[in-house]
UniProtKB/TrEMBL annotation:
It comes from the Bacteria. Its EC number is 1.2.1.38. Keywords: Amino-acid biosynthesis, Arginine biosynthesis, Cytoplasm, NADP, Oxidoreductase. It catalyses: N-acetyl-L-glutamate 5-semialdehyde + phosphate + NADP(+) = N-acetyl-L-glutamyl 5-phosphate + NADPH + H(+). It is found in: Cytoplasm. GO terms for cellular component: cytoplasm. It comes from Candidatus Endoriftia persephonae. This is N-acetyl-gamma-glutamyl-phosphate reductase.
Length: 343
């Protein structure tokens, strides 16, 4: 059994990790930390886990965490980087659900995250945990940077076109929408039902910290520069991200449906839907899938891609479990076989 610790067990990604891991036959969760809830039984705070998990929250104690085989950080940005060197030296493998190791350019990371990196010497070693591009590296990794939710939805949508050099790269557009669980479980006025219900808005139009992360993925795939306008929106639902992506084709004769189907034919968690489909967020609620549709609107040379993921699963905890499975030589879909809730 893989002994797993979770730092930050009271957030939405923490409880989502628990929901997936308690049914994982190769895993035993041995440590779940929370400074605010230390001593309290986990199933007392999260009744969905009653009967599935007999464990209490503890303070984040480095010695306890060092006794694990793998530690997930489900903490705000800037926490994992303070503890990762010690854990790696103790032989523990780490998956960070936050952004501390996602961008390999230290100066770029510091610019967008507004803080100094605590262990820049580990940035080169961290593997960006998007299995659809980095599967073999994830299998060997000691430190995995789990991708952001929007970067997963946008990256998977653009990748087949970028890898094949089929679109103009100077001006890609990603118009994305997220449910409110993307903002985490911490209380804030902006996330109140009275503020988000029956309303819909764009945010971070001048710049969102996922823009450089998405560009990094697409530039690695293309080998050149990529121009990207990325605008996120908040929609009045709890889970889910829809990304509508626009690009200009260099060659309008390519069979895009066949291209996408071929690219993702062997991917267990990417579903290229039949031509003409419009993916719905509810079709991925609670599951680790990304569903994709590719369209050529009637006139012109534009391609439009629509992708959907559950921000808490393929956008966070599910992708982290997928990465864990790869790191430990398990079946990639172990513990991730759920079917989405519909309606
Ligand atoms: N929500 C989403 O859809 C997604 C989130 N993420 C990322 O995952 C991470 C967690 O997100 P989410 O679950 O939403 O976050 P929350 O804000 O809901 O939870 C944060 C957790 O971290 C713990 N924590 C906070 N500060 C510290 C600290 N200094 N040391 C140890 N533990 C700490 C908190 O517990 P306590 O204070 O009691 O210790 C809490 O359990 C974030 O980095 C987020 O950006 C990534 C993709 C998608
Ligand atoms: C709806 C909403 O607020 N979403 C969050 C993104 C989710 C996230 O957790 O991103 P990181 O892991 O990179 O921090 C936001 O836009 O900040």
């Amino acid at each position: 059994m893989i002994k797993v610790g979770i730092v930050g067990g009271t957030g939405y990604t923490g409880v989502e990790l628990l929901r997936l891991l308690v049914n994982h036959s190769a895993v035993q969760v041995v440590v779940i930390t929370s400074r605010s809830e230390a001593g309290r039984p986990v199933a007392d705070l999260f009744p969905n886990l009653r009967g599935h998990l007999d464990l209490a929250f503890t303070e984040p104690d480095p010695a306890l965490l060092a006794s694990c085989d793998l530690v997930f950080f489900a903490t705000p940005n800037g926490i994992a980087m303070q503890q990762v060197p010690e854990l790696l030296e103790a032989g523990v493998r780490v998956i960070d659900l936050a952004a501390d190791f996602r961008i390999s350019d230290q100066a770029l990371w510091e610019k967008w995250y507004g803080m100094q990196h605590a262990c820049p010497e580990r940035l080169a070693e961290a593997v960006y945990g998007l299995p659809e591009v980095n599967r073999e590296a994830v299998k060997q990794a000691r430190l995995v940077a789990n991708p952001g939710c929007y970067p997963t939805a946008v990256g998977l949508g653009f990748l087949p076109l970028v890898e094949q050099g089929l679109i103009e790269l100077d001006h890609l557009v990603a118009d994305t929408k997220s449910g409110v669980s993307g903002a985490g479980r911490g209380a804030s006025v902006a996330a109140l039902m009275g503020e988000t219900g029956e309303s819909f808005k764009a945010y971070a139009i001048p710049g969102h910290r996922h823009q450089p992360e998405i560009r990094q993925t697409l530039m690695r795939a293309s080998g050149g520069d990529v121009g990207l306008t990325f605008v996120p929106h908040l929609v009045p639902m709890i889970r889910g991200i829809e990304a509508t992506l626009y690009a200009r084709l260099k060659d309008v004769s390519v069979d895009l449906q066949a291209l996408f189907e071929k690219r993702y034919a062997d991917e267990p968690f990417v579903d290229v839907m039949p031509a003409g489909s419009h993916p719905e967020t509810r079709s991925v609620r609670g599951v680790n899938h990304c569903r994709i549709a590719v369209h050529r609107p009637l006139d012109g040379d534009v391609v439009v891609i629509s992708t959907v993921i559950d921000n808490l699963v393929k956008g966070a905890a599910g992708q982290a479990v997928q990465n864990m499975n790869l790191m430990f030589g398990l079946a990639e879909d172990a513990g991730l076989e759920q079917v989405a809730l519909l309606p």
